[in-house]
Batch of 4 targets.
Target 1
Amino acid sequence: MMKQQILLIGMFLFVLMNTTYAQSNGTMNTDKDQVKTTIEKWNQAMLNGDVTAIKDYFPENGVTFFVSYQKMEEMNVDLIIKSLEGQFKSMAYTNYDLLSDPLIYITENGNTAFVYSTMEIAYKVLDSNKGEKFTIIGLEVLIKENGKWVSVLKTTEEAKEKRKPVVLEQSVLDEFSGSYKSERTGNIFTIENDGKNLISKLGDEVSTYIPQSDYSFYKDRFSQSIVFGRDSNGKIQFFTYIKDNICTVMNRID
């Protein structure tokens, strides 16, 4: 699948997910503009096949994480660059389009940014010259390193992928149980489980989410999913609610 061809990169900083805005509106807006420009530079570098520009996107220590649906592993940026070089020999990205303005949250110290976006990406298979495109919804974490924003975590979910349920142990399902508050609306959601699936409750509204990995769940027959993240101690700290072109963060409050 195409989502496996785009490298998902970064360091696990989900512990910082209880975000607040930067200390002043001026600082916040400046940082938001800088973060958006950084994201656009990455996309342009992919279109140009410019590995030098792509390498500049990573932290100086050159160590990051490869993120897939069921695992997260440490990788060296040089290996990621070599993989991209091989990818550019078989395909070429031709266009990207942000389907909605990215949601950008800046931490109080102004050194960490969380970005949620939906993007349509077009590419061409070089052997056949056939054009294709796909849509992804992404979560990205950037840090400010020596005045420059660099990516330390990037994970994406294909907006229209075919869902494949998995079976999780009761002990794993129990880890997600708790109360979560929406960053966007302030609504409080309760997460429980029925021994097989997760149950989300908001007032009288009840939704069932089916596991598709050990941290990602989807709503059957709907383009909705929730993706959980842990803090540095391994505790479930938040989940991201994804529906069509909208991403919303729900922070754990119990």
Target 2
Amino acid sequence: MTRKITTILCLFFAGALCLGAAIHLEQSQKNNKKQWNEANATQAFTMSLTRSAYDRTFRNRLIASPESAKQAVADEGQISVPDEVVILFHEDKFNENYHVFDLPQFDENARKNHAYRQYIECCYTPW
């Protein structure tokens, strides 16, 4: 009986050690990633765009979904992409499936017409 308990305890502690090592490895890999900032993000995007020109599998990861694109850029640039960042790639320059707009300034008293073309160009200046 004592031998059985000792064996079970040894297995339990061995499993705990393996789990601890796996968690430590995962954390150290995350910590080795670059921080999300203008310079690192620009480099990660450049690396991703460059690879997309010759690696079809990687290119497919970029266009599959925003989640897949984010992971591909993170992997390629070894960068931690914040959860709130959305990354989207598409292949056609004039793709009619994507409609991204900047909203007009909010004014609850305004009833002015806000034309489509003024807001389709969207919302940020690239880095």
Target 3
Amino acid sequence: MLLPLLPRPARIIGLALLALAAVAVSPVQASASEQSRAGATHHWAWPIATPRVVLRTFTAPETAYSAGHRGIDLAAAQGATVYAPAGGVIHFSGVVVDRPVLSIEHAGALLSSFEPVTSTLPAGTVVHRGDPVGVVAAASGHCASSCLHFGVRLHGQYLSPLNFLGGIPPPVLLPTRAFR
């Protein structure tokens, strides 16, 4: 890196630009403190039984309207039981366009969503971590084969569900020089 060769003001500007670039491409769109307050401490349970195979990972969109993959796809057979990843209240259970969708409102303004999932639980039903909440419905075009799409939103912004399942280590900033 050429930053150590630059005069001090240029190094500071260069480091600031690097920090901004890192934030701009980060797949997590909510701050670490927001996630911490929302419960992103790895106490969520997986919504399906083992074996758990992630077919497609989360890809953050550049903007709210850009292309991206706003969740993870898990291999799941049609009829497989879907479990609540954390306690909450059923927010929605029904069909959106042509897909059965289930969403759960959790503490800290978090909303998890699952598709294609059919459920007999009506909106307003209280669920606890690990409770069966529905079953994987017939493939609806989201995946080439049967799968469960699992998404998480915080204040309307999508996050990777792996943040809540312990699949992504927290970022650590390291100093670039020794401090005196």
Target 4
Amino acid sequence: MDPRTQQQLATADRFRDLARALASGTGAGLVTPPPLDWALVVAFYAAVQYVGAYLWERQRVQFRNHQTRERALSTVPALRGAQQSYLRLRRLSENTRYTYRFRPRPAEVRDALDNDLDVVRRVVLTALGQQP
């Protein structure tokens, strides 16, 4: 596997761990209540890194905007299984940052992390021939 792909996967895993820490409040020195909104933002960018790792490894492309990455999710057969989860993470991330008074519920954040982000991760790793 290309070193750049490995780095993107490592970054994605680190972002995933950070999102979980933000959602649970277990990170040292974090504010109370846990910053659930930022857990969603970090989770989305973990998904960006996972998809980016696949696209780099298989196509040697790096997309610098969300629209082209999303187009790849709909046109690359190996990634289609992650499309819905990826788009949900993006919507939640954008709502958190741009929608007045949007406050994610703990259950919604857990679902995004435990289901949507894990789907993106599993689809990408499987497509890369790695163990999820």
